[in-house]
TrEMBL record:
InterPro entries: CD80_C2-set, Ig-like_dom, Ig-like_dom_sf, Ig-like_fold, Ig_V-set, T-cell_Activation_Regulation. Keywords: Cell membrane, Disulfide bond, Glycoprotein, Immunoglobulin domain, Membrane, Receptor, Signal, Transmembrane, Transmembrane helix. It comes from Leucopsar rothschildi (Bali myna). This is CD86 protein. Gene3D superfamilies: Immunoglobulins (2.60.40.10). The gene is Cd86. It comes from the Eukaryota. One of its GO terms (cellular component) is external side of plasma membrane. Coiled coil: none annotated. It is a single-pass type I membrane protein.
Length: 210
């Protein structure tokens, strides 16, 4: 996993137990078996065959057999393969190592924010209309729940969550709405929780006091 716009380090997991000189090796990184991410030919990095989206964004740490991918974006998610070949003669090469790793991108959602949609003064037996929104996150979250608390009692309800994805950045914006009778209890607090995937926990709004 890596955070959006950060540098990602992808390891080739090559032990090089035979201490082969890098000048006798070809190191080839590809994504989803179709895109050329990085190439090192006999100690020299080559850039002419790279897929356009990876030009000027990759560097190889020869000492650690690790590829650095700069400014990671959502479109970089996927499966990466490292292939190492050894020169046997002028014409022949032999694959001596292959490894794979998967990249998942994480972008932090904004703190959920509650907005009051009703106008005018709240009246007994009237309705309370609220929305809760969070934006700019990745991947798509699991769900949004509302917590209604009074006198040490908390009720939880899961409401429908509207999800939209930005066509350019691929980041998600989410909104949930709550429509309930105006609470008769005094000092009622209402908050919303955004539950994230990938064991990333949840984000809570600032409670709204009614």
């Amino acid at each position: 996993k890596a955070f959006l716009h950060h540098t990602v380090h992808l390891s080739c997991h090559f032990p090089n137990s035979q201490k082969i000189d890098i000048n006798n090796l070809i190191i080839f990184w590809q994504k989803d078996t179709s895109k050329v991410v990085h190439e090192v030919y006999y100690g020299q990095e080559k850039h002419e065959n790279l897929s356009p989206e990876y030009k000027n964004r990759t560097k190889m740490d020869m000492g650690k057999w690790t590829l650095q991918l700069l400014h990671a974006g959502v479109e970089d998610e996927g499966r990466y393969e490292c292939i190492i070949m050894q020169k046997r003669s002028e014409q022949s090469r032999e694959v001596i190592h292959k490894s794979e790793c998967s990249l998942h991108i994480i972008a932090n959602y904004s703190q959920p924010e509650i907005a009051e949609l009703h106008s005018g003064e709240l009246k007994p037996n009237g309705y309370l209309n609220l929305s809760c929104s969070s934006s700019g996150g990745y991947p798509e979250p699991k769900e949004m729940t509302w917590l209604i608390s009074y006198e040490n009692i908390t009720h939880s309800t899961t409401a429908h969550m509207d999800v939209s994805q930005d066509a350019v950045t691929k980041l998600y914006n989410v909104t949930s709405k709550l429509n309930i009778l105006v609470p008769t209890q005094r000092h009622t607090n209402i908050s919303c929780l955004l539950h994230l995937k990938e064991q990333l926990g949840s984000l809570a709004s600032v409670p709204l006091g009614i």
